[in-house]
Design goal:
There is one protein chain. The chain is an alpha/beta fold. It has one domain: HAD superfamily/HAD-like (Rossmann fold), CATH 3.40.50.1000. The chain is built from eight helices and nine strands. The strands form two sheets. A seven-stranded mixed β-sheet has the order 5-4-1-6-7-8-9, with helices on both faces. β7, α7 and β8 form a beta-alpha-beta unit. The chain is globular and about 45 Å long. The two termini are 28 Å apart.
Length: 202
């Protein structure tokens, strides 16, 4: 079995889009896709550490009719072109209001379980990285979870309210790669909840 880094997509690999009326939303086409400059380097680091890289992302825009599967595939192909280190993409294109309940929409762990089944992933040796607490909840089947957050404002109160605790909080994917490098080298004990470079819970 292989170990994997599971990545959410929007807000982790690429910038989320923003519209005055729509608010924050996922890219609807390749033109709206803006990949973070540090994403490729971080993924190279993950590969060098022996991890498969698997994207697991909710894309309810398909259910809403905002984006079709053809455009979603084009976006995926562009990301794969820019970051060939990524080994696989798993999307949930459902939304309960439009398609009913499903087993794959995060915070459920169906996408991770599917990757486990199809790719022989050892979840107990894997890591989930996302920018939403639904990613963290889904990733509780993994060894570690890392929440990406640019700011600490109100974050602890939200985490305490929902009782969903990540193992680490990082600024971005590049910072997460630094933490994972320490995990790989068994030096992660130096990170604590009062650490200047990251937060660790527990």
């Amino acid at each position: 079995m292989t170990k994997a880094i599971f990545l959410d997509r929007d807000g982790v690999i690429n910038e989320p889009c923003y519209h005055d009326e729509l608010g924050i939303y996922s890219p609807r086409n390749v033109d709206e896709l803006k990949i973070f400059t540090y994403a490729k380097k971080a993924c190279k680091k993950f590969k060098n550490l022996g991890y498969e890289i698997i994207v697991v992302s909710n894309q309810p825009g398909v259910a809403f009719g905002i984006i079709n599967e053809e455009e979603l595939n084009k976006i995926t192909e562009r990301i794969q072109l820019e970051i060939p280190e990524i080994d696989g993409f798993y999307y949930c294109t459902h939304h309960p209001a439009y398609t009913g309940k499903c087993r794959c929409r995060k915070p459920k762990n169906g996408l991770l379980k599917l990757a486990q089944q199809e790719r022989g992933v050892d979840l107990g040796s894997s890591i989930m990285i996302g920018d939403n607490l639904s990613d963290i909840e889904a990733g509780k089947v993994c060894a570690y979870t890392i929440l990406l957050a640019d700011t600490r404002i109100d974050l602890l109160s939200i985490i305490e309210t929902k009782k969903i605790f990540p193992d680490y909080i990082a600024k971005n994917l590049s910072h997460a790669a630094f933490i994972i490098n320490d995990i790989y080298n068994h030096t992660y004990e130096k990170h604590t909840s009062s650490c200047d470079c990251c937060w660790r819970f527990g």
